[in-house]
Amino acid sequence: MTATRKAILYRMVMPTHTCPYGLKAKDLLRRQGYEVEDHYLCTREETDAFKAEHGVKTTPQIFVGGERVGGYDDLRRFFGKRVADPRATSYRPVAALFAMTALMALAASQAVYATPFTTRAAEWFIAFSMAVLALLKLQNVESFATMF
After folding, report:
1. Which residues contact 118 (CB under 8 A, 6 or more apart)?
2. In contact, 26 and 36? CB cutoff 8 Å
3. Is the pLDDT of residue 1 over 60?
4. Quick one: 36 exposed, middle or buried, by C-beta within 10 A (0-12, 13-18, 19+)?
5. Tens of pLDDT along 66-110?
6. What pLDDT score does 104 carry?
7. 18: Cα separation from own chain's centroid
8. pLDDT band at 147, cuts 50/70/90?
9. pLDDT at 148 over 60
10. CA atoms of 110 and 38, how far apart (whole Å)
11. Which residues contact 98 (CB under 8 A, 6 or more apart)?
12. E strand spans, 44-107
């Protein structure tokens, strides 16, 4: 008979906001075989008091075996899982954007000319890509202008 592994999770669950990282932490703990004692922090005051008491800046906070593991990223490290570096450059969104616009151009070419591979498909790919990039620019003009 094996002992049940237990974890204590403190996370924000407020009327207008449920912390997504708290939900992810709870799911990860359960998938790792932990029984989760889930404590809601229901108000801003309660959350601020918890953070002050434990000397932390963020929630959720996870405790295993009476020791504070930390937040969601710390929990991932605790289980030996990869944690993305927030400062690392990723070209995945750019690759996804261009893959999507290429597929749109090929589909449009297939619909109009009954073949996906046409000169017009290449032109549409450029046009669709420029349109989607323009939409991204409108999302935050100042940030877009200074990132290049």
Report:
1. 109
2. yes
3. no
4. middle
5. 899 999 999 999 999 999 888 888 888 899 999 999 999 999 999
6. 98
7. 15
8. low
9. no
10. 53
11. 129
12. 61-64, 67-70
Residue with tokens 């295993």: 64
| Token pair belonging to 140 | 């935050």
How high does pLDDT run on average in the chain? 92
Q: Is cis: bond before 60, omega within 30 of 0?
A: yes
Helix axes 92-113, 119-139, angle to 10 degrees: 140
> What long-range pairs does 66-70 form, CB within 8 A, spacing at least 24?
69/7
Residue 118 burial class via C-beta count within 10 angstroms: exposed 0-12, middle 13-18, buried 19 and up: middle
**What single DSSP character describes residue 43?**
S
CA angle 44, 47, 50 (to 5 degrees): 150
**CA dist., res. 120 & res. 43, Å (int):** 57
Which of 80, 44, 50 is CA-nearest to residue 62?
50
High-pLDDT (> 90) share of the chain, %: 78
60 touches 72 (CB < 8 A)? yes
